[in-house]
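User: My notes are a mess, but here's the protein and adenosine-5'-triphosphate's SMILES. Can you give me a structure?
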Amino acid sequence: MNDNHILQMKQSTGFQDSMPQENVVIYIKDLHKSFGDNHVLSGFNMKLTRGENLVVMGKSGSGKSVMIKCLVGLMEADSGYIEVMGKEVSTLSQETLDILRADIGFLFQGSALYDSMTVRENLEFPLRRHKNKLGNIVDTTPMVMEALENVGLAHAIDLMPSELSGGMKRRVALARTLILKPKVILYDEPTSGLDPITAKEIIGLMRSIQKKYNTSSLIITHDVDCARVISERMILLVDGINYAEGTYEELLKSQDPKVEAFFKK
Ligand SMILES: Nc1ncnc2c1ncn2[C@@H]1O[C@H](COP(=O)(O)OP(=O)(O)OP(=O)(O)O)[C@@H](O)[C@H]1O
Ligand SMILES: [Mg+2]
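Assistant: No problem, the inputs look usable. Here's the predicted complex:
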């Protein structure tokens, strides 16, 4: 497949449509975000469909985290349209945004556990924030245990983050993301800083979670191996735009130097 095909694929993904279709869970159109003269995003488009694993790759500083922060309303875009599960993010009140966020699992870059809290307390934290997800449940222990069992760490429930390895911390962070049973999970560099074997374990967990709960996943990474294993579709973020799109195999065959650069070891 040549680069014209990639361009065609990009054009055929329907960004020219003004409104997303029903099975689209995240829709970003023409997103712009600058910091002074630093034009980070300059017309980025993205669509995540239900049940899909979409990988967005871009080199360090290309704006991946900025994009994901705009997506969840942690950062305000300069312009563009962002819709998450049928709701336009920029129009939502803080309250509605909070309710929406309960359906979006966000695994932050790094693990971002609270160091002063035990594993159990870290997992209970989102439950306390999103009380509506609890219903009549008083004892949260079974929920905490289920989330920890999903990542193979039930035995670590009473440990402090300082007692965990990097890989274990990442797994606890993943469990904390899962505890609210999100419909969409956003992973920001889920394997960064991990050795290849631990990275593989995390990728394995991401896959099993997706199967078990049928979540849609947006995975931000510059780990080519992670992208190869997990992606059904990929977007390369270059120069502030969705520069190329396709499956891993399609992009791997590209002769565009900016695309090739991603796959050179
Ligand atoms: N709050 C901010 N204020 C000013 N500049 C910012 C801010 N957040 C991000 N930037 C700038 O935006 C650019 C993109 O940053 P971002 O964190 O999105 O990169 P990234 O693609 O996630 O990189 P990495 O792979 O290293 O995580 C960088 O030049 C960064 O300095
Ligand atoms: Mg980042």
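The pocket of magnesium ion (ligand 2) is lined by residues 64-65, 109, 188 (CB under 6 Å).
User: Great, I'll file this with my notes.
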